[in-house]
Amino acid sequence: MAKQNPFxxxxxxxxxxxxxxxxxxxxxxxxxxxxxxxxxxxxAKGIGSTVADGIDGIVTFFRKVGN
Length: 67
Hints:
Layout: H1 16-35, H2 37-66
Helix pairs in contact: 1-2
């Protein structure tokens, strides 16, 4: 039985280089959280706030277009 891709249109698997880059990013984030937990928390809060503001702006746009 073949595995099905849970995300149509996106390749799964990938080469060794993409896996190494992903592992390096995860390791770097882990080091930042362990070494600078307060700074990492404020960065995460800032990123979350930026994403929420962006979503709010998009929703407002579509509401204005719909009226």
